[in-house]
Structures are given as C-alpha cells and as structure tokens.
User: Fold this.
Amino acid sequence: MKKLLLASILTFSLLMTAQKKYVLVIHGGAGTILKSSMTAEKENAYKTKLTEALNAGYAELQKGNSAVEAVAASIVIMEDSPLFNAGKGAVFTAEGKNELDASIMYGKDKSAGAIAGVHTIKNPIKAAIAVMQKSEHVMLSGVGAEQFAKEQNLEIVDPKYFWTKDRWDGLQKLQKKESLKVNKETSQNTLPESYEIDQKFGTVGAVALDINGNLAAGTSTGGMTNKKYGRIGDAPIIGAGTYANSQVGISATGWGEYFIRATAARTIAAKMEYQNKDLRTAAQETIDEIEKLGGDGGLIALDKDGNIAMPFNTAGMYRGAMTENGEIMIEIYK
Ligand code: ASP
Assistant:
C-alpha cells in the first residue's frame, strides 16, 4: 500500500514536471551568412540581440503567460533592432520604402492574424496579434491595416523611423547590379553573386510552447530588397511562412515565393498529422522540397513535446532556442 502511494506520488510529480515544459525557439533570418565575411563585433552584436530576444520571450513563459505573449516579446526585440530585416532595419522596396508584413497563429484554437504592406506600424507583430484577437478577420493590408492599428492604439511612427543606412546602401547596390544585368553592353559584373541573396533575407520569427502545452508561431519581415508592385511574401501568409496547431508551430525565412508555393509551414504540420512523421523529418523534407523547386531559406519548428528542428539550405541562419531547463543555444552558421 505504501509502495503504491509512493508510486502514485512519483507519477503525479512526474506528470506535473512534464506539464511544466516550456520552450522557445527564434530565428533572425537565413541567407548567405558566412563566417569569413563576418567580423567578431558583428557576430557578437547578433548573439547579444538573439539572447535578449530569447530572454524576453522566456520571461513571459516563466510568468505562466501564453505562447502568444512569448512570441510577441521575442519578436518585438528583433523588430526594434536594426540588425534584422523586420521593423527598424527592414529592407527597401524598389521605390525606396520600408513595407512590412507580419503574422501570428495560436495553436490552441487555430486563431490567426496577419498584416501586409504597412509603412507606419512600429511593431507589425503587435498589429498581427490585434487582428487575431480584436477583429473578425485574419489578414489586413496597407492603409486599412494601418487604420486598424491606430484604432487599436498601437504605436504609429513616421515611415522614416524604419530607415537604416545599411539597408539603403543595400538597395542602391542591388539596383545597380540589376541595371548592369539589363544593360547588355556591360559585360562586367563587379558585385559578388551572393550579395543579391544577402540583401533579400533577414526575417525574424519565434515559436513557443507554454506551460499549458499550447503552441504559437509568429513571423515579421520587411520582405525582399527591391520588391515591386506591392509584392507580398510568405511571412504574413498563414500556412506558408507561419503555422501552429496543437501539435506543432513553425516560422519560416527565405525566398518567400518558394515557401508560398510549397505551403511550407502547413506542409510540415500535415506530414506530422497525416503521415505520422516526426518533427525533424517533416521539417527537413519540406526544406528539401523548397530546394528542389529552386528556392532557399530555412525555418524553425517546435512540437508539443518540446522537440526542435531548424533546417535550412543557405550558408547560415541566425537561430536560437531556450529549453525548459533555461539553457540557451545560439547558432549562426551551418
Ligand atoms: N521570407 C521573406 C519574404 O520572402 C524574406 C525573408 O525571409 O527574409 O518576404
């Protein structure tokens, strides 16, 4: 009898510990991130900011707040940092504007929110969350989305707030490169091929598993340098750049058109749901398919048991995770 009691106490406490599992995974974009072209100073700046983003999101989970709050806290830190292609530091469109997209999905009830093509919302992820929680819609775009954000009392800034010299120079170089391509008489192309790709990636994202076992995933981006005609990538598209259900959460980064065509984030969830594939296999197969289509990038995925997958087919991807024992992992290169 005593043994039985002891065994049930042990099982109960093990169950309680199992329930207390919370995990956070983030990314700061995939691309031609080579150690050889990185200074120690720059590498340090990225690592420090990724750590800050992890700590902010993790603090929410520790407080017992939901996965949505954790994702928001992490993404806001990266949106506010000029290091990443989201919020301040976003890349420029062909017209020289910063045009932002973001999305969020909560696995618990499959609620979702997204905004696309906005120029004045300081933290696009907050607007995506407001769409999810305060509207009957899933995606709002352009001036309508900005009007909604204003009505929700979110911080509105002058579009100049998003301007950074690095990204501006990036646009000038890319436009020069493209004009060289167009000008057939010019056979010399002085810019390295990798430059074009470098300027296109840098999206941020986060996936969290909270103390109640719920998952949320969010993504925020400036899109791709030199984008035209109101182009929208995968980041604000639920099922492409972002997805979460009760089993798994995913946030992607890379050449958005390919992630849309592969319905990347939802495909990972479907492989797990219908084919019983484990997280890592499902995530890797999806990146492989994107590569086969000709695209590149990466993603972070987290399942309800706290398993993590971070596949990418580029030279590097800024990424980090914080597991239930509070251990931080940050990686940049392959
Ligand atoms: N996926 C984003 C887009 O295509 C770009 C990125 O990941 O940096 O808009």
Remarks:
- The chain has ten helices and twelve strands.
- The pocket of aspartic acid is lined by residues 29, 85, 201-203, 221, 223-224, 233-235, 241, 253-254, 256 (CB under 6 Å).
- The chain has one domain: 21-238+263-333.
- Residues 40-62 form the longest helix (23 residues).
